[in-house]
Amino acid sequence: MPNSAIIVAAGAGKRFGSAKQFYEWRKRPLFLYALDAFELNKSIDKIILVVPQKSIRGIQAMMKNMNYKKVHSIVAGGKRRQDSVFNGLKALQNRSGIVVIHDGVRPIVSQAMITKGIKLCRTYRAVIFALPIYDTVKKVNRGIVKGTIPRKNMYLVQTPQFFESSLIQEAYKRANRAVEYTDEAAILESLGIPVHCLCGDKDNIKITKKGDLKILDRIQP
Description:
CATH superfamily: Spore Coat Polysaccharide Biosynthesis Protein SpsA, Chain A
Distance between the termini: 38 Å
CATH topology: Spore Coat Polysaccharide Biosynthesis Protein SpsA, Chain A
Number of helices: 7
CATH class: Alpha Beta
Radius of gyration: 17 Å
Number of strands: 12
Order of helices and strands: EEEHEHEHEHEEEEEHHEH
Strand content: 25-35%
Structural class: alpha/beta
CATH architecture: Alpha-Beta Complex
Largest sheet: 8 strands, mixed
């Protein structure tokens, strides 16, 4: 059964100041580092890239010139993350195998994480990676602390996230379109579908602000 990856690189990058997925880190757009990980992974058969509508032609030319073999489709993103992922799912053209969904601005995803996630997803159908929270968590409104949130059983979720293809496609069709979901697992959770969580990788950082690039430089000197 084919395994597919959807790389979501369609954001506007408001907190970064520009579309961060196209920011050139060491002379290459950030999203290419994420793409490379899936292009090289032997468990991945095809890749769907989700990018801004205005960038599609440029990305198509880039993929052709750089000889990426697994990029099957390049599709336009939507208004929200979930809309972008849904567009990627509609481009899959199959309901078998595993779908791996990854942020294009997480450039350091390990081969071990991809391979392990796919393997476990065959058993558990929905698998995510996350890091436990050790710091105290406060709820703050307009600079005023409103309370302390118990950190026990609290985790910071990462991508990639792994799903049985038919399961995630059906979940997206059944999801409440009026609700905004910040990750794919939340859609399954809303439908009562179990999602299994494994310990993530602290180096698998998401680039959100320009200051995060300094962390990236420290991880990859």
